[in-house]
């Protein structure tokens, strides 16, 4: 089951606060947006979309992915006129909630997360999410095996680590020494196409935040 988790699913899981069991999207800006952009990266790796030379995102395969949130992403891309990657970042900057919620729900459906409804001060409803499958530890160990122990680096693992690095989430799971080693490995892999795409995503989000 855990082997079949996608990049957005893994990213959402690692955004789960280990102490409070709340999603870190509440406290960190753009976790939901990065999750949605991870959907596009996942579709690219799966061969459902391609990036043209000018970074225009084109549909290459409309076959169902088997995941509702990925199929919904394909529907949105198909319904809109062709856009470059940076235009999709701008598009989802204000339209991220639906897909993000679908990714979270997919983890619940898989039995990876369980939801507990609680209340703060007996008034404000709050949802807590329990990683009942211990999936986060499996994901972190996969990253260690591929990027810290000289294993083969899969494209989806590289993408996940880049998203985590952009959101300063590596320090949640790795020591200072491990983080330094991870970043050195990322620097070696900077010529990879997926690296360039995620760096572009991060740059556009920063520009939007700055009003540029």
UniProtKB/TrEMBL annotation:
How does this chain sit within the bilayer? Peripheral membrane protein
| Keyword list, A-Z | Golgi apparatus, Lipid-binding, Membrane
Report whether Protease shows up as a keyword of the record: no
Q: Which GO terms describe its molecular function?
A: phosphatidylinositol-4-phosphate binding
Determine if Translocase is one of this entry's keywords. Answer: no
List the GO cellular component terms: cytoplasm; endomembrane system
List the Pfam families.
GPP34
List the subcellular locations.
Answer: Golgi apparatus membrane
| Gene3D superfamilies hit by this protein | yeast vps74-n-term truncation variant domain like
Broad class of the protein's primary localization: Golgi
Q: Entry's InterPro entries?
A: GPP34-like, GPP34-like_sf
The protein's name: GPP34 family phosphoprotein
Origin species, per record, is: Paenibacillus endophyticus
